[in-house]
Amino acid sequence: MSATLPAFRARLDTDAGRRMALLVTVAVAIRLALMPFTLHFDAYQIYSRAHEAAYLNEWFGFTSQIIIQTFHNVWLLLMRPFLPDSGGIWSDTASVIGVGASREDYERFLAYDHLYRAIFLMKLPYVVADLACAWVITRLVPPARRLGAAAFWLLNPLVIFSTAIYGRHDSLAILLVLLSIVAARRATDGWRIGGLALLGVATLTRFFPIIIVPAYLLAYRRSNRQLGLFVGLLAGMAALVELAGLATSGRSTILTILGSYEHFEYWFDAGLYLRFDDFIFLFPVAYVLGLLWVSERGLTPREYPVFGAAAFLLLFSLTFFHPHYAIWLVPFLALVMPFTARMLTLHAIQVACVLVYSAQWGSWTTWELLEPLLGDRVASLPDPVEAIGGQIEPRLFFGFFRSILTAVSLWMIWALLRDPVPPAPLPDAERGEMSSGAGPRSFPHTATPLQASNHHPLRRLTSPLSRWRRGAVGVGLALLLTGCSARVTGFDSPVMHDHGPVEWAQVGGPVQQSFVAGPGYAAAMANDGRITTEDYQQRHAALPDDAREGALVDLRIGLRLEPEAQGAWDTAATVQIVPAPQHDVLNPGHPLYDSPSPIYEAPVDALPRDGDWLLIDDPPELPSGLVFAVRVVPGDGPDAGALRVGLTPGRVPYGGWRAVDASGADLNGAMLVRTRYDRDVEAWGVVSSGAARLRDAARADTAFMALWALCLGGLCVAGARLRRPRTTEET
Questions:
Q1: What backbone phi and psi angles, to 5 degrees, belong to 317?
Q2: DSSP secondary structure string, 500-527?
Q3: Helix, strand, or coil here: 281?
Q4: How far is Cα 198 from Cα 84, in angstroms, rounded to an integer?
Q5: Beta strand spans in 434-510 (E)
Q6: Residue 195 class from Cβ within 10 Å (0-12 exposed, 13-18 middle, 19+ buried)?
Q7: What ranges in 510-662 are assigned the alpha helix state H?
Q8: At 238, is the pLDDT very low, low, confident or very high (cuts 50, 70, 90)?
């Protein structure tokens, strides 16, 4: 310790040391500020599974991800003494595949007196691994690149979003992957086998690293015999995990993952259909072509990170993914990407596209992350899918940004793998470090040092906000606090939320679909597959006023003619909006239910159409919270037999009703019904709610909140001091 402190002070005396210290201080402060107040429901799920071990001593209730689940089991056991009276905040059904934790379980967790302490401790391993990843990255690049590589990781929104905001454990697996490179670079057989073991554990922890395992084998094996040894080691590790799952639960771990999780299926979504059951899947084709190319040309240890970066860029170009997994784009790019303005701009476009892409899950991956801070008032914020759907078809909107992400990522692959150029010369101090394992061919960026110029784009990452940025932040806060208006969709068909298939059934008799009037559908159903219609109505009634009150702008119904008629329709059918008091458990005696006659009626043939949607653009006023039904009554016109109504077979919106015919018979699906509302968001009320919850938390858990504020304040002071120019005496 006596030798370490003077060395640290000496390093702070240099400009590079101060910049690195400022970077780390800012990065830790950002994470500390976000950690206690945001969380995704998935993190609650995995810790609820862990509570069976930590509280009930049942260690093998969930074995399909045995390595990472065991880690959480142990960590929660260590956390437990710091979480008083926490036995009742976890879900008892989280380990049941297909059931999971319920909304009621999560609300019980959110009401915990020491909520922010619990969330902070839940995320702590992820953030520690996140910071450790930054340190390992600096050990894997030349000294001249260390500040840039560290900034690229520590200030990257994809990393911060996944670990400090979302609360996912991918950083643990990424740390193992990076450590595997450190071990492999020791250039001895023992260390390379150790590196492969780390990579194998990372793959069994999080399946993403499996795409770089072949590259590791090609880059670090010395002979075909050693390659066989490597493959045998990986097979043995997989067999051990499989046997552990069979011994503890009687179920195959690997087959459970393949059969129960959709993540592997995502890799086969994009493809070309030939005929019968014949498909060509794009990602496997492109990936195997890349492997064949690499195996033909050879892969040196120095080039392994380049292939890793290209592999992950390809994966996120051609497959479906959840937004928090995009963190896997970052580590290998941090090792090999040239930190030029062009490449940084391309990555910034990637980040922007991923953040927009994340909004296609609606509030589930956006506003609801703030629920620990905002509580029920998070429902006041407009669901992104609904707000976008009120203006443009969401599939077009999100598809545009997803296409840009794919194009930019593929172009970055080309930029990384194109024909090599003569490398820039390295300083003598770095030449030895970079020469180990270098082959006869090298990629252009691997030997390009980060220039020391203050005008380099990465210098801006650690500089203070400019005046125009401060002004933009101020204007944004002013607009937020003075209130805003958002056009949102109050009720949506499963086409939007569940992406289910649609069947077009002939309208042989009257058919109708019930729905609850008023916005707030997404907030009330809370992505809860077990919610009943009664639960939904009660949750809707409990929403804040600005989340469930609004003016109905238009209503749309999925109708088409098959075959399509030329010109105007002539079906003589009518569409009606009628009260549905038989479904209303909260307002059965409302006066509007007294009259059995339709509230609205119009001929189908006279209404405007938008593709397969029939538009009612002058809908009646429907009081929020009451239950109504859209009814289609067939006519006797020449086109009557061609009229089709859209149904989602076997699927209905969470908390919704199935469509029925005139006799009340179930039609095994929901009609395509969409409503659009104008409503005002009381932004000041949302902010006030967050402030009130913070005050309540400070009273209920004074020790943690005081310690958190002290640490954050200390980091801010340290950052301010590091920003100050050094005086003559300090120099």
A1: -85, -40
A2: ---EEEE--S-EEEEEE-SS-HHHHHTT
A3: strand
A4: 36
A5: 484-491, 503-506
A6: buried
A7: 521-525, 533-542, 545-548
A8: low
Q: How many other CB atoms are there within 10 angstroms of residue 380's CB atom?
A: 25
**How many other C-beta atoms lie within 10 A of the C-beta of residue 153?**
27
Q: Are 315 and 263 in contact (CB under 8 A)?
A: no
Rounded to whole angstroms, the Cα distance separating 373 from 370 reads: 5
Which tokens sit at 660?
């029925």
Tokens 């030349």, residue located: 142
Residue partners of 38: CB distance under 8 A and separation at least 6? 119, 164, 165, 166, 167, 369, 370, 372, 373
Q: Which residues contact 64 (CB under 8 A, 6 or more apart)?
A: 97, 245, 251, 253, 256, 257, 260, 261
Spatial CB neighbours of 400, under 8 Å, sequence gap ≥ 6: none
Count, residues in the chain: 731
CA separation, residue 605 to residues 507, 517, 651 (Å):
14, 25, 28
- Contact call for residues 483 and 681 (beta carbons, < 8 A): yes
**What are the tens digits of pLDDT across the range 279-322?**
888 888 998 999 899 888 888 888 999 999 999 999 999 999 99
* Angle (deg, nearest 10), helices 341-358 and 394-417: 150
- 327 with 354: CB under 8 angstroms? no
Most distant CA pair in the chain, distance: 95
Residues paired with 646 in a beta bridge: 504
- Opening angle at CA 59, ends 55 and 61, nearest 5: 105
Phi, psi of 671 (to 5 degrees): -70, 155
Rounded to the nearest integer, the mean pLDDT of the chain is: 82
Q: Beta-strand (E) ranges in 360-458?
A: none
CA terminus-to-terminus distance, the chain: 24
Can you give the pLDDT at residue 154? 97
Whether 648 and 520 have beta carbons less than 8 Å apart is answered as: no
- List the structure tokens of 218: 């090609």
d(CA 5, CA 18): 15
How far, in Å, CA of 46 to CA of 550, rounded? 37
Give me the residue label for tokens 């045998």.
232
Task: Please state the three-class secondary structure of 543-568 as a single string.
Answer: CCHHHHCCEEEEEEEEEEECCCCCCC
Is residue 662 within 8 A of residue 552, CB to CB? The reply is: no
Give the closest residue to 377 by CA, choosing from 687, 651, 153: 687
pLDDT of 153 reads 97
Which pLDDT score is estimated for 193? Answer: 85
User: Residue with structure tokens 């009943």?
Assistant: 532
- Tell me, rounded to whole angstroms, the distance of Cα 134 from its chain centroid: 22
User: How confident is residue 427, by pLDDT bands cut at 50, 70 and 90?
Assistant: very low
What are the two backbone dihedrals, phi and then psi, of residue 207, each rounded to the nearest 5 degrees? -70, -15
Task: For strands 600-603 and 669-671, give the pairing.
Answer: unpaired
